[in-house]
Specification:
Elements (H helix, E strand, L loop, with lengths): L1 E3 L2 E3 L6 E7 L2 E9 L13 E7 L5 E4 L2 H7 L2 E6 L6 E6 L2 E10 L5 E7 L2 E13 L6 E10 L6 E6 L2
Parallel strand pairs: 3-11
Antiparallel strand pairs: 1-2, 3-4, 4-5, 5-6, 7-8, 8-9, 9-10, 10-11, 11-12, 12-13
């Protein structure tokens, strides 16, 4: 397990789309492509989201139904205009930015997400959380990605 800053980084995976780290603890929410046996995105559920519980034994654990619907879950819908099967989606907790999940020309799963107004390959999200009040709130969100053409790093920090 590598660390980015103070937070653990999940192990590399050929199907990893991106992951979310939060300031509140070292547990990580992971978003992997859900592929069929013939290496296509699963039409009913193209993204598998789960925890890696670093604060416990580092085990993988499914999201609870509340976490799926209110916090970390995704809505995805097939884009019919694309030649290759791809899916538009958004976070249920933050619907303002839509993303696209698809396979790149080499068959590698990617999530294209708006970073600084341009669709970039999303790699990591960091959420800085204020837990001092009864209900937690988000101070800011950082997006880390790569330009799909140049391969250059992309970064944006914003307050939702």
């Amino acid at each position: 397990m590598a660390k980015v800053g103070l937070f653990p980084t999940p192990p590399e995976s050929a199907i990893r789309l991106f992951y979310i780290q939060r300031s509140s603890n070292s547990n990580v929410v992971v978003y992997d492509a859900n592929l069929t046996s013939n290496k296509a995105l699963n039409a009913k559920n193209p993204v598998h989201t789960y925890w890696i519980r670093y604060t416990e034994k580092g085990q993988q654990e499914e999201l609870s139904s509340i976490q799926k619907t209110l916090a970390y879950g995704l809505y995805t819908n097939k884009i019919n205009s694309e030649l290759e099967p791809s899916y538009e989606g958004y976070f249920l907790a933050y619907r303002k930015r839509k993303f696209v999940v698809k396979l790149d020309p080499k068959g590698v799963p990617i999530a294209l997400f708006p970073i600084n107004g341009k669709l970039q390959i999303l790699k990591r999200i960091f959420v800085n959380v204020d837990e001092s009040k009864f209900l937690p709130s988000v101070n800011y969100i950082e997006l880390f990605g790569k330009d799909p053409v140049s391969g250059k790093d992309a970064y944006e920090r914003f307050k939702p």
